[in-house]
Automatic annotation (TrEMBL):
It comes from Pseudidiomarina aquimaris. It comes from the Bacteria. This is Cbb3-type cytochrome oxidase assembly protein CcoS. The gene is ccoS. The keyword Mitochondrion does not apply. Keywords: Membrane, Transmembrane, Transmembrane helix. The chain crosses the membrane at residues 6-26.
Length: 64
């Protein structure tokens, strides 16, 4: 029972901190563009020629 006198204020403090962080994120436009990062993964086209050249150099170094 005595531990509740410590745990309840700590829980309330955590809730207050979470609410403050949430409102800070909303005010600083952290949730403004949620689609862009997901689309960057889909639209990220790597140059296949650029990828093959370092691999060939790696194989030559490994063969030597």
């Amino acid at each position: 029972m005595e531990s509740l006198y410590i745990l309840i204020p700590i829980a309330i403090l955590f809730v207050i901190i979470a609410v403050v962080i949430f409102f800070w994120a909303v005010r600083s436009d952290q949730f403004e563009d949620l689609e862009r990062q997901g689309m960057n993964v889909l639209l990220d086209d790597d140059d296949p020629k650029a990828d093959k050249k370092p691999q060939a150099e790696q194989q030559q170094k490994n063969d030597a």
